[in-house]
Amino acid sequence: MSWTSFNLRTLLFGTIGLLSLLVMSGSSFMALDAWLKGRVADQVVEVNEVADALLESNAEIVAERDLAAEFLIAGSSSTTDVFIAVSGRMDASWQKAMVLLSRERREESMSASHGDNGQLLQDAEAAYGAFVQLRSRLIGELKKPIGDRNTGVIEAWYDAAANAIDAIASLRRVVARKANSIDAVTQAYSQLKGLALLITDYAGRESIIIADAMFSEKPLSARQTRILYDYRGRMDLAWSTISEAADATAINSDVKTAVESVRDKFIGEFGKSRKANYAAGISAENYPISANQWLNRTREAVVSLVALRDALTRANMVHAKGQSDKAERLLIVVALLLMLAMMVTAASFVIVTRRIIKPIIALT
User: Fold this and answer.
1) Among residues 28, 240, 246, 363, which is most buried (max CB within 10 A)?
2) How many whole angstroms separate alpha carbon 279 and alpha carbon 126?
3) Is 201 in a helix, a strand, or coil?
4) Model-level pTM greater than 0.70?
């Protein structure tokens, strides 16, 4: 073998090796990037699951509070069993949220930089514990005739419910922060879900105050009026944000349909009853409908808000899962390209050796 053939072989092998190294390095970098994107997308799915479980827990507290208020104002002792069943649903949703949150913390998906996570969790657990403790006393009051019920226990339970709602909402916002900082669409859905629940919460608080005044056949006091205007302002601001978001082209079509349903049923139809009862309560006139009718209309209108929250949750889940699946498909494609690059490299060495190097060596 001459020096010329040796140099030629070295040059060819070196060139093929360099090109192959570049191709495989690029493919490896793309594969690593795809894997990291997939891992981030999976984390968004997991964090959303925890945040949605906490949101559901809050929604169940709101439902339990509103049902208890209705029973305390107008119900008989026979309604206690219904209330206990609803309370069991609330407890189940809380336990689910805690299991998911415990798993998430073990996997360290919640960044250590969020130093208030642990404190917020303790606050939420304490608030939930106080809420449950008072519930047993409240059930005792439900079994009594309306005139014999201890108003102190009732007021303490309402306060405990409000504290639990606020504490769990704060925990949910921090849990969702990781996913929200990664994906703008997830952030938008997270905000809208929270706002839908906020409207549901304050609609319930509003309903309790007005129903109590209607059953007592009394006008709204100046303090109650101020509180109701505050509630209404919060609901109007939340609805304005949701309504504007529904006009965005990127919003899910099912969400748009749910928003229209809220606009028709809660803002439109129920809004007329709200306005009429406000006016009657402030002016000390007779209320246009009975308290039971008011509670029934509130319950029917809130159904559209629950449907909106469910639609937002589903849309967020579909989006997050789609991002995860997209990253997984990209990883598969890049892995196949890397395998193909390796096969082409091996084939190139074989072809160059057999078709070029060996004939040159034979000639020299």
Assistant:
1) 246
2) 40
3) helix
4) yes
CA dist., res. 352 & res. 355, Å (int): 5
How far is residue 174's CA from residue 180's CA, in Å, rounded to a whole number? 10
The whole-angstrom separation of Cα 132 and Cα 124 is 12
Residue pair 62/200 in contact (Cβ under 8 Å)? The answer is yes
Reference 199, options 54, 301, 64; nearest CA is: 301
Please answer whether residues 38 and 331 qualify as being in contact, where contact means their C-beta atoms are separated by less than 8 angstroms.
yes
Does residue 16 contact residue 330 with C-beta atoms inside 8 Å?
no
Amino acid in the structure at residue 129: G
pLDDT greater than 60 at residue 8: no
Distances (CA, A) of 303 to 129, 142, 168, 200, 273: 28, 25, 22, 9, 16
Q: Quote the CA–CA distance of 235 and 237 in Å, as a whole number.
A: 5
Determine the Cα–Cα distance for residues 216 and 340; give it in Å rounded to an integer.
80
Mark out the alpha helices in the chain (DSSP H runs).
3-74, 80-106, 117-142, 151-182, 184-216, 222-246, 253-262, 270-283, 291-351, 358-363
The residue with tokens 């169940």 is 60
CA 59 to the chain's CA centroid: 11
Cα dihedral: 24, 28, 29, 30 (round 10)? 100
pLDDT digits (tens, 9 = 90+) for 37-64: 666 667 777 888 888 889 998 898 898 8
